[in-house]
Amino acid sequence: MCRKHIQGYPSIRIFRKGSDIRDDNGHHDHESYYGDRDTDTLVATMEALVSPVPKESKKLLMGDNDNGTNDTKRPAPLTGGCRIEGFVRVKKVPGNLVISARSGSHSFDPSQMNMSHVISHLSFGKRISSKMLSEVTKLTPYLGGSIDRLKDRVYMTQVTQHDVVNTNVTIEHYLQIVKTEVISRRYGRENKLIEEYEYTAHSSLVQSINIPAAKFHFELSPMMVLVTENPRSFSHFITNVCAIIGGVFTVAGILDSVLHNTLRLIKKVELGKNY
C-alpha cells in the first residue's frame, strides 16, 4: 500500500491510460476520489469517468474475448508492505516511537491491519565505521556487540501456535540504552575515540482496542560505561626492565647454588667422605 501511496482504507484511485499520476504545475500527485461515499455520488462519478472512453477501449480494459470469459491471471506481487528508512532526533530522556496508520480523512479497519515487520537495522547515536570499530575492539573486545541487537529480527502478529488468527495486535519493543565512551590519553591530552549506545531489547504482543501499531519504548540509563586508555610512562618501563633483570639474576643464583652443591656432594661420595 505504501509503495502505491495509498494512505487510507478504503481509497479510490483513478487511473487514466494505465497511470494515476497527474502533473499540476510541475507537482506530481496521485489522482484519487475525495468526494462523498454514498451510492448515487459514486455511480455518477464513475459514469462521468467512463463515458469519454471509447467502446473498443472498454472491451480491452474489461478483458472481453469471443467466449465471454476472462481466464487471465495476474501474478502475485513479489514483495509487499512498507519500508521505513531514516533517523529521528530525540532528547536523552525516555520516549516512544510509534509507527501506525493515521489520517483525518480516511477510515481504517483495525482487524485487517497486520503490523508484522522485520527490523533490518536499529541503532542509536552516530554510525561507527567498521575501521574505527575494529581499532577500538583491540582495546575492548566486547565493544560493538549490542549496537544493533534487533538486526534481522522478524516479528509476526497474524498466526499463533494453534493457527488462530490474531487481530488488533500491537507489537511493543522495550529498549534499555547504555552509553559507552572510549577515551585515549596520550601526551597529556584526551582524545575521544568512540561514543556508542548499546541496548538490550524485550518485545511483546499486546491486544489493542485501537488501531494496531509498532511501538518502540526507549529509555537511556543514567549510568555510563567509560573506557580509558592510559599510556605507560618511561619510569614504568624502567621499573619493568629492572624487575626482569633482577628476576633473571635471582633465578641464575638459585640454579648456580643448586648446581654447586650437587657437584660437591658427588665429589664427597666418590672420595668416601660422605658426611
UniProtKB/TrEMBL annotation:
UniProtKB keywords: Membrane, Transmembrane, Transmembrane helix
InterPro entries the UniProt entry points to: Erv, Erv_C
The keyword Ligase appears for this protein: no
Record-linked Pfam families: COPIIcoated_ERV
Region (Disordered): 58-78
A GO cellular-component term linked to this record: COPII-coated ER to Golgi transport vesicle
Spans traversing the lipid bilayer: 237-259
CDD domains documented for this protein: PDI_a_family
Domain Endoplasmic reticulum vesicle transporter C-terminal: 77-256
Signal sequence extent: none
Record's protein name: Endoplasmic reticulum vesicle transporter C-terminal domain-containing protein
Organism for this UniProt entry: Coptis chinensis
